[in-house]
Structures are given as C-alpha cells and as structure tokens.
C-alpha cells in the first residue's frame, strides 16, 4: 500500500478518518522502513548510555550511523540493544558521517522485539553528534 492509498482509506468515511485506518494498515506492513535519530550536536554527551528509541514492534536494524559534530580524538560511539553492544562507530572528526552497515559485533542484536531499547554511548566525554538507526519492520 502506498501513502496515497492510505490517505484515500483515511478519508473513506468519518470513522476511518477518525481512527486513520489507512495509516494504521500502512504501518503494519512488513518491510516498511523507519529511521530513529538522537541529536546530541549542541550539548556533548558523556559516557552514560542514551536511549535512541524503544522498538514499537519487531524490527531489524539495517544501518547504524554517527555524524560527528565536534572533533574528539579517538572517539567512538557504541550502539547497543539493551546492555548488549551491537557495534561501535567512529565519531571523532567534525563533520564526518560513519556507518557500521553490516559489520557488527552481534548480528543477533540487529533483530529487535517490540519493547527492545536501542541505546548509544561514547567512549570519551565531550563527544557531540547526531546518531541514527535505520530499521525495517519484520
């Protein structure tokens, strides 16, 4: 279903419009892509884990990205499912976008169940950046 088709269903009758029926159907389709962002570009984050998102349904992570917004020598960020590390990504050179792609430490960690939390933390204080996680619905 396309977003145009979903909108037509939404406008089909007052009840469908009220509950956004087409949008709900579209959201339940497997293979639909989602991106989640955590913007820590203005204020540096410390070495404590920060939550990026909690999975609303079963998903597979397909890409982990870090866009460095400050230069911090040897800085990396580690993405995790709960407390289990999935992958570490460089976040050291201002303006550099780095992606973990398919090179991850824990491939099983790429599969999320509804309610799983994805976090990120830095190995250095003073790191600033924009973290993103790209997923598809299972």
Explain this structure.
The chain is an alpha+beta fold and 138 residues long. It contains three helices and nine strands; from the N terminus they run αααβββββββββ. Strand 4 (76-81) and strand 5 form a beta hairpin. Helix 1 runs antiparallel to helix 3 (21-27).
Which H/E pattern describes the elements? HHHEEEEEEEEE
Task: Decide which structural class fits the backbone.
Answer: alpha+beta
Uncertain residue ranges:
none
Average of per-residue pLDDT values: 84
For the record, give the distance between the C-alpha atoms at the N and C termini, rounded to a whole number: 16 Å
- Largest sheet entry: 5 strands, antiparallel
The amount of beta strand, in percent, is over 45%
Q: Share of helix among residues? A: 10-25%
Quantity of strands, as a count: 9
As a whole number of angstroms, the C-alpha radius of gyration is: 18 Å
Instruction: Compute the number of helices.
Output: 3
Question: Which geometry do the CA atoms define?
Answer: elongated
